[in-house]
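Model the whole thing, not chain by chain.
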Amino acid sequence: MQESNSIAAIENEIIEEFQLFDSWEDKYEYIIDLGKKLPALDPGFKTDENRVRGCQSAVWLVADFKDGQVAYKADSDAVIVKGLISMLIRVLDLQSPDNILNAKLEFIREIGMMNHLAQTRSNGLLSMVKQMKNYALAFKARKDGAGASS
Amino acid sequence: MQASATIENVYDVDAVRRQFPILSRQVNKQPLVYFDNAATTQKPQAVIDALVNYYTGYNSNIHRGIHALAEEATSAFEASRDAAQSFLNAEHREQIIFTKGTTEGINLVAATWGRANISEGDEIIISAMEHHSNMVPWFMLCQEKRAVLKVIPVDANGELDMEAFENLLTAKTKMVAIVHVSNALGTINPVKLIIEKAHNAGAVVLVDGAQSSVHLDIDVTDLDADFFVFSSHKVYGPTGVGVLYGKQHLLEAMPVYQGGGEMIKDVSFEQVTYNDLPYKFEAGTPNIADTIAFKAALDFTTAIGKENIRRHENELLFYATAELEKISGLRIIGNAKHKISVISFVIENIHPQDLGILLDHRGIAVRTGTHCAQPLMQFFSIPGTTRASFAMYNTREEIDIMISGLNKAIKMLS
C-alpha cells in the first residue's frame, strides 16, 4: 500500500487537483499562484554556483541532506517556472535519495505540462529535474561512502 | 478617402498571405500569429515548389556531371548565384560565395582573411549591439593572435555612438565588423558612413546583413563594403544557405577555408592547386536543393517589391509601437530614429519568458530572451526582452490579437 507522503501519492494529489481545471488559463493561474507563494530564496544563495544551467530565466536550486532525506529550496525570476519548481519541490522534498532517483514524475505529463520538459523550451524544467536528481545522487554516494567506511 | 487607408489598398496583404501555406494553420486551437520573423521567416509556395521540383525532377550532383540531370542542377544552382549577385548589386558573380548562413560567412572571413592579416597588437572593432555570431569569431581571432577587440558603445535609444567610433579608429585598426540592422533593437546603423570612416583609417569592413537584407535595398557596390554576409532563411528562403560577398581582390588574396572537392583544380600527393573564385571557398557538395530554392525566395521578394514590403512593415511598426505604448509599465527597448519592423520590450515586474509562454497558448509566436546579444542586455540591465518582429504577411489585426493577448497575460501575471 502507498504511504500518504510517498512520491506517487503526492503526484496523484496534484493530478487530481488539476482535473478540476476546465481551461489552460485556470491551470496557469494556479501555477502562477504557486510561483508567487514559493518562499523567496535568501539572496545569499542566489550565487552563480547554485544557478541551474540551460534555463532562459534565472533558476537557483540548493539542497540539504538530513536524517536520510533531501530538502530542496529553489527560486526563479520567472513566475511560471517558479510555480513548476514549486510542484517539483512538493513531490521530491524530504524524500530519500533512492526514491528521488527512481521517481518517474509522470504527473508532469498527466497535468499537460509535458511541453515544458522539451529541450527546445529551454525553460529549465528538464535541467531542474536533472539537477534535483544530481543532488540526490551525490547525497546517496556520500551516505553509502560513509556507511562503507564505518 | 482617408490617407491611412490607401496603403492597405495598394498592398494586398491577403494575396501575400495566400502565398504562405503555413499561415493558415492553428496553434493551440487558435489561428497562428507569427511574429518571430527576425529569427526566421516563413516560406512562400514558390520556395516549397522549387524544393519539390528539384527532388522530383532533377536531383543530381553539380558541376562535373556529364549527364542531363547534372547539367540542369548545375544551371539552376548557378542561376541562384546570379540572383544573389543582382540582389546585392555585386559587380561580378564570382564575388558570391555560398555558405551555410551568416554565421559561417563571418567565420570564413575571420579564419581566412583574419588569420592572414591580423597580428599581435592589431585592433578589430565591433559594436555593443552585435549578435554573438559577429562577436565570438572575432573574439576567438583576437585571442589567437593577441589582437585587441574594441567595442563601439550604444546609447539609451539603441543607436551607435558615432563619436566614440571615430575615436576608436586608429592606425592599428584592421577590421570593422558591424551589424547593419540590430536583431534585438531593430536599429538601422549608418553603415555607409562607418565604411567611409573605416576606409579612411585603412581598415576593412564586414557588414552583417542577416537582418537588413530582407527589409532594405542592399547595394554592396554603393556601400563600398569589403564583405557582406546574409542568410537565405531570413529572406523567405530555405535554411542552410547563406551568401558571403567579398571584394574581388580580397577574396583572391585570401587563403582557402576548408579543403576537399570542388575547391581544387589539381591534386597530387605533392601539390594541390586551388580552384578559382567562387569555388575556392565552396569545398564539398554544397546544399544544392536549398540554394536553388533560395533563388525562388529572392525572385518572390523582388517581385512584390522591397519598397512595397517596407511601407507595409513600417505601418505595422508604427501601429504596434503606438498600441504597445498604451500598456502601463511597458518600455520599448530600442528607440532609434531609423528602425526596421522589430519591437523589443519589457514590462515592469514581468519576466519575458512568462509572457512568451502565455502568448504561445493563444497561438502568438514571439521571441523572448537575450536574442543572442547578451552584452547588449547587460548594457540595458535587463534579463532579456519580448520581441515581436513583422514580415510582409503580417497584419494590423494580428497586432490587435497580440495586444489583447498581452493585456490578458499581464492580468494573469500581476
